[in-house]
Amino acid sequence: MKKSRRKFSRSFRTKVALEAIKDELTLQEITLKFDIHSNQISTLKREFIENSSKACESKSKADNTDKKKALYIIKFVNHKLRMIF
Question: Which pTM does this prediction carry?
Answer without folding.
Answer: 0.62
